[in-house]
Amino acid sequence: MKLYDVYPLFDIHIVRGLGCHVWDDKGQEYLDLYGGHAVISIGHCHPHYVEALSRQAATLGFYSNSVINGLQRQLAERLGPVSGYDDYQLFLINSGAEANENALKLASFQTGRTRVLAAGHAFHGRTSLAVEVTDNPRITAPINANGHTTFLPLNDLAAFRAELAKGDVAAVIVEPIQGVGGIHMATPDFLRGLREACTEAGALLICDEIQCGYGRSGRFFAHQYAGIRPDLITCAKGIANGFPMGAVLIAPEIKPSYGQLGTTFGGNHLACAAALAVLDVIEGEHLVDNAARVGAHLKARLATLPGIKEVRGEGLMIGLEFDSDIKTMRQRLVHEEHVFTGAAGTNILRLLPPLTLTEAEADDFVDRLNRVL
To answer: What is the pLDDT of residue 9?
Structure first.
């Protein structure tokens, strides 16, 4: 059987990681400025994370959600005050797409409506409803094209208000910082106006924090720059540092009934042990503050380099826009300078390093990128 390649592959076999560095099977070290699609939040193979996951694997790896799982309750109790959402409910699943899928279902259950508003260039996942609210026809199969979603320009509050005023919208889903879309930011004024308009229209506001959340932006959640409280917040990626996990934070006013949501593997013992270890390290090592400080330092250094059209983003979620295709640049960064980066479209370099990145490592990356430029 041949393996299906999910993405175009670099011809590199990564076998080991530590902090912001990974090694291939030939012993070559690489600086990781991509964190495996923003998944590695506390660094590769953090010793506390390794110990917590190993200890749990030796105790109990899995049992059904039909019995009490004390680790789930611990995670909810810890995540509430850390995130600023102590009064919300926590629903645990396995991925970001699942998180958005379930948030959209909850909005439809709550409102009885079927229409959704999303932003142009949005990416919310590859499962059925998540694809419908993703602005990419290439991944929308005919079975997914059900006409539930209206796409509007990000930050065009008047356009969103006009659609919400029709009274048939179940939810608005928005990334406070678009990842795949190119590190485009929802402005604080737009998010505040959207919160107000959703409330007036009886629609729910979903903030997709799957890539920009969990400290990456320099706040625990990126929407907190605007001082709003969404009805639903979706999380994944950095929540468990590589162990598959997703979550929906649900406002106290929303009361799902038994049977509306369910999961087999969601919130399993290993996933919760991983997520608790991540919170330990985020708090203990002040990684949200580190993301803000090192991110600001990195953006300032990058702004001095030649050939970059724009540097944008917050914290350690940074996009570098160029006037030309960056494919060759990324190849040279990997093969000549031994740095992993991401991309958005054809001309945006996407930086999503572990939140443990130091200023020295940021400077090292700038030097390597400068040589390529």
So the answer is: 84
- pLDDT at residue 130 in the model: 96
The alpha carbon of 334 is separated from its chain's Cα centroid by a whole number of angstroms, namely 24
Please report, as a single letter, which amino acid is at residue 77.
E
Strand duo 169-174 + 204-208: pairing: parallel
Q: First-to-last CA distance in the chain?
A: 41
Task: For the sheet with 317-321, list strands across it.
Answer: 310-314, 317-321, 348-351, 342-344
Amino acid identity, position 158 = A
Q: What order do you get walking across the sheet with 21-24 strand by strand?
A: 14-18, 21-24, 29-32, 339-340
In angstroms, the CA 373 to CA 371 distance is 6
pLDDT digits (tens, 9 = 90+) for 294-350: 999 999 999 999 999 999 999 999 999 999 999 999 999 999 999 999 999 999 999
3-state secondary structure of 66: coil
At 88-111, the pLDDT tens digits run 999 999 999 999 999 999 999 999
Rg value, the chain, Cα: 20
3-state secondary structure 174-201: ECCECCCCCCCECCHHHHHHHHHHHHHH
pLDDT of the residue at 83: 98
Strands 204-208 and 232-235: parallel
Residues written for the chain: 373
Assess whether pLDDT exceeds 90 at residue 256: no
Q: Where are the beta strands (DSSP E) in the chain?
A: 14-18, 21-24, 29-32, 89-93, 115-119, 149-152, 169-174, 204-208, 232-235, 246-250, 310-314, 317-321, 339-340, 342-344, 348-351
Query: For the purposes of burial, counting CB atoms within 10 Å of the CB of 106, is it exposed (0-12), middle (13-18) or buried (19 or more)?
Result: buried
**Letter for the amino acid at 151?**
F
* Closest by Cα among 287, 288, 279 to 241: 279
Region 9-24: what's the mean pLDDT?
96
Would you state the pLDDT for residue 23? 98
